[in-house]
Amino acid sequence: MKKVIIAGGLVLFIFSCSTRTQGTASTEKPVYKLTDQQFATAKNLFETRCGKCHDLPKPEDHTAEKWKPIMDQMAPKAKLTDEEKNWVLAYVSTNAKKQN
What we know:
Elements lengths: L1 H16 L18 H14 L14 H11 L7 H13 L6
Helix pairs in contact: 2-4, 3-4
């Protein structure tokens, strides 16, 4: 009986030390496919609006996954419309750092 209790305690200890996995983060590509004109407009918006109040980050400074929350936070400050935000997100995601 003592061995069963020790074995059970050992099993619980091992499971409590294991790392818990949570759902994998989305690695979806942007849904917006930009025309050449839209891409140029998105690049211009990024350079003018996103660099207006602070140093302009390079698109390759972050992964596409990381750019989404950045854009969600910064787009209202840059007074981007939803469409402009999506275009800029597509631009930076296209040029973003590749995930390892």
